[in-house]
Specification:
Elements lengths: L2 E6 L6 H9 L4 E7 L10 E4 L5 H11 L3 E4 L6 H6 L1 H16 L7 E5 L23 H16 L4 E4 L2 E2 L9 H11 L3 E4 L3 E2 L2 E2 H14 L5 E4 L6 E2 H11 L7 E4 L19 H7 L6 H16 L2
Parallel strand pairs: 1-2, 1-4, 2-3, 4-5, 5-6, 6-11, 7-10, 8-13
Antiparallel strand pairs: 9-12
């Protein structure tokens, strides 16, 4: 019998790649939640549901009967989280309680959290460092972490920062930048915002590897690239990888931006624990950029 895996937000930027990675392996039967009806034939069984509704969350669990739950669904628009705190709580906290409690917490539960649970004053945060969120998105993600750990001893809380793209196209950092590069618009890159992100496919494969080779791991785990970099450096590397002029990116400070919601500056994550798990394998920016260029081209330049 194949292992039954439920992936929430399976059409989102991360969820689609997690679903793809698992569905390519015959050991798994993959179920994915989506807010919109999914009629396309696929190896993935999509379940249309709104996880802010407790009854619909229970219906999803009843239909999928998962052995593993990977909770990718989230509201990632920070301004929206500030303005719609009740809805944010329902998805990030309440649905996490319901999903992590499935079968009295006997199913393996993976909660995708964020590096933004920290205040960004120091960087190089370990799994043991105390969170100090600066905005409501981060606060709700931290509360989701607590719910996952309290309701399921098998939970893995993954703190990370991801980059990728949507299908159909969305408005991620990468997509925003590439759209501007095509139009030859100049954009600002923050030199004082530091992070060590991973490509969504890198994260998806790492989750699968951990479940298959280190299944007893539980608790908090940082999954990030080996070398932190600024948003400015990130955008310059992206432009170089895709063959655009790096002069389109202007160095800037987040302090001078017109962003509505306050954001931490240095959320780089310490990856010592992850490196011990992965051994010689490394999550590098070079590999991530090379892969996203290939995947992006396969989806949008045919």
């Amino acid at each position: 019998m194949p292992t039954r895996v439920l992936i929430t937000g399976a059409k989102g930027m991360l969820g689609k790649d997690v679903a793809e990675v698992f569905s390519k392996d015959k050991k798994y039967q993959v179920f994915g939640t989506t807010r919109n009806k999914e009629a396309r034939k696929s190896k993935i069984t999509y379940i249309q549901a709104d996880l802010t509704n407790a009854k619909e969350t229970k219906r999803v669990l009843s239909k999928s009967k998962p052995d593993i739950i990977i909770h990718c669904a989230a509201i990632v628009n920070l301004d929206m989280c500030e303005k719609n705190r009740k809805t944010t709580d329902l998805l990030h906290i309440k649905s996490t309680k319901s999903l992590s409690s499935y079968k009295n917490g006997s199913a393996k539960f993976i909660y995708i959290s964020s590096d933004s649970v920290f205040n960004g004053k120091t960087g190089n945060y370990t799994e043991l460092d105390k969170p100090d969120p600066l905005n409501y998105y981060a606060h709700s993600k931290q509360m989701g972490e607590q719910a996952a750990l309290a309701n399921n001893k098998n939970s893995i809380v993954i703190r990370t920062n991801i980059y990728g793209f949507h299908v159909p196209p969305g408005n991620s950092l990468v997509e925003w930048a590439l759209n501007n590069f095509v139009l030859k618009n100049k954009i600002n890159g923050f030199t004082d915002v530091i992070f060590n992100p991973v490509y969504t496919k890198q994260l998806a494969r790492t989750i699968k590897y951990i479940l298959e080779n280190h299944g007893k791991i539980a608790g908090i785990l940082n999954i990030a690239s080996t070398k932190p970099l600024s948003k400015y450096a990130f955008l310059r590397l992206l432009s170089k990888q895709f063959g655009f002029n790096q002069s389109l990116i202007r160095p800037a400070s987040i302090d001078d931006s017109d962003l509505n919601t306050f954001r931490p500056k240095n959320t780089s994550l310490n990856t010592l624990k992850l490196r011990k798990i992965l051994g010689k394998n490394r999550l590098t920016n070079i590999d991530g950029f090379a892969e996203i260029k290939k995947d992006y081209g396969n989806n949008f330049t045919k």
